[in-house]
Predict the structure.
Amino acid sequence: MDPLVQMVERSDLEGVRGQLRSALTGNGHAWATHLSLFPVVQRVLNPPFINPHLPKMYRIIKEFIPYLESDDIPPLVRLEINEYTRRPKSTGVAKTPGQYSNVSFDRIEAAIRAGEKEMAATLMQAFLEQKGREELARRLLLLGSGYLEKSLGHSISCTAFILLEMLERRDQDPWPVLGTLADYFCRGHFGSTPEMRKTSALPIKEELERHLLRATSGDGIVNLHHTITRYAVERVRHLVSEAEYAHMIVCWVEFLGDKKDETPDAVPASEPISQYDSFYRIFSKREEGPVLTALTDLLASEKGRRQAGRFLIKGICDLYQGDYNPHHLTGLGSALWVAERYHGSP
């Protein structure tokens, strides 16, 4: 896979397209190709934004696999590799040797506040080696929780999924992730962990559902991030204590501000759609109402939700024209999470 990774890094689209003909052929080859991209993906940029949208997308794509059949995976991997290839890459943060004993997280925060990304990354590496990957992830998530409004939620949503990939890929050197997050936190000025919000318990279930309805209301990129952020918080819930999770939920509710909820319009009944080709004929017209109508009946059962997810992922791949906003996939990840978690409230 090394030649392909090098072509992605050089933004060699023609070379990559030629290499993909063999890389995506054969049982399991497409997913192995996806996995091989870990080091270079962390440095893929999405200017003019500072947020690491593409490394986040890389991890969220893994959440699509349970929805897909084996033949569906190569088009998805082809799409993501094209996106990584055509975008600029950072030079990365140089890994410098250094012996640091008993590193406190305060030292990492101080390096971030000083804008010293190399030092911040080096201290993160030392902290990880001394306290463990999970403890570093927990502290970075709590640090990011104080900047949701400033970062449009990315200080948690990007951080969470990038860290999840680092935690799961024990076979990989974590340095590319540490360099990316050190650079991101320095550029975003995310340098001080907020005080824990004063809360004794989580909001009751009904209140949480009302906040999620507020989050999913509205349209456009800003409103989409309200749901993506909650999705990220839930995916890293196991890394924090119950009190810290409650704190992160309160930060998320504050991020929603005074946004009003919108009761969705009733969706007309339709004949269930069981075949992808029938769905694609509707989806390819890019009209929201008919697509919602086609999907609604599927959401009632676990099998149907899996089918709906497969149809949407395949639809995105089949409509791809070589230039995508990564939110098409990260937003879809959050939508599928909502469908799985709240299918009783369509």
